Amino acid sequence: MTDITVGYHNDRLVAVKESDDAARSARLRHEADLLSRLDHPGVVRLVDFTEGPPAVLRTVFVGPDTWLRHAPVGEFQAPTLAALIATVADLHETGIAHGALKAAHILVGEKHRPILCGLGDGNTACDTDIISPTEYTTHTHTDSVCQRTVQRT
After folding, report:
1. Pick from 139, 135, 137, 130: which is nearest to 153 by CA?
2. CA 113 to CA 122: how far, in whole Å?
3. Closest CA to 92 of 30, 141, 43
């Protein structure tokens, strides 16, 4: 597991993930790459990434609670589940899959809004082909750009 702490970076409260381990550092680098492509209210925001050792990933601090400790209950269940589903759908629409969606990777944001974190195991459509019964999707990766072509049947 990667160490996660809270600190300040340029007068901003941040969550800090840090690792000396080569494999974990590569996951942090990959997570930083995915987060750098995203600007979504349901996903943590990247502040910066520093190569190691140790590798350091900083994101905007959302709060200490996850769904592992504080799953939505009562009147908060339906709206928070709907917000989570919408966020995951938006990620998939942009060609990104979380890769390890579990309660520990869902932060409790303002007004109980779910905020996804822990995208170190995530992948893009260029990393994997996605084929459904109603569409055939091909992806080509050239010059660090993923080209997505969707053909509907």
Report:
1. 135
2. 21
3. 43
Task: Please state, in angstroms and rounded to a whole number, the distance separating the CA atoms of residues 104 and 101.
Answer: 8
CA distance 80 to 66: 13
* Nearest residue to 5 via CA among 70, 46, 61: 61
Report strand pairing: 12-19 vs 55-60.
Answer: antiparallel
Q: Helix or strand or coil: residue 51?
A: coil
Structure tokens at 48: 């910066």
**Coil/strand/helix, residue 86:** helix
Q: Which residue has the tokens 């579990």?
A: 102
The 10s digit of each residue's pLDDT in 18-29 is: 999 999 999 999
Bridge partner residues of 85 (DSSP): none
Residue labelled with tokens 């300040």: 8
**pTM, two decimal places:** 0.77
